Amino acid sequence: MNEAVLVRREGAVLTLELNRPADGNLLDAAMGATIVQQLAQLDPEVRLVCLRGAGADFCAGRVSPTPPKGGAVPSAEQLRQKVALPALALYDAIKAVPVPTVAVVRGRALGVGTALAAVCDITLASEDASFAIPEMERDIPPTLVMAALCDRVPPKTLAWLVLSRRTLNGLEAQAAGLITTAVPAAALDREVQAAIETIAACSAVSLRACKQYLQHAPAMSPAAASAFAGHLAGTALSARY
Fold first, then answer.
1. What is the pLDDT of residues 139-156, one digit of tens each?
2. CA 91, 69, 134, 55 torsion: positive or negative?
3. Verdict on whether the full-model pTM lies above 0.85
4. Phi then psi dihedrals of residue 102, to 5 deg
């Protein structure tokens, strides 16, 4: 088990906690792989997955996976394999979780941290949290983070975050549609606990139906979305008999 990601199962709730508080929970390849593995083997009885960070920050960015300059020059394919694919696999794995996902954000959520916060279905943050995509400061196009966010936030919000490198606090992130809600820091744990208890009290069947609809209906035509809604409702209701 990678101790940089703490895995806790409490009843129907699985919590994945980034555990490198000394460096702001910077995400490295092993941590990402651990999260992907845990989500791939999700127990059918789990009704909610919670993603959070230990200490003062949620996730202050990513440990650079690029090789140092001065050695052999990597090819574009090597960089795609080492840099791009692991990050994309992580974002896709979180989006594909069959039950609701909740991110809890305090402190910094920078670059990959902003992406991890936003790809979850519900994101609860403290008002003094900070969100930013600063990669263009180093003239690096953050297309991986953009891929995570392009179906989560309006295009103008994404363009502004990427090109301006503006840091948003929790209230600004909520107004921009990046997170669900921001509350005073002292109230965050209470708000999170209330949300988790409310969600986890529902049946796994109903939660999975809601998640399926959220995953697929936005890309459907209105007629297809309506038909899909009827199918999911019928399937979920049949579990009661």
1. 999 999 999 999 999 999
2. positive
3. yes
4. -125, 125
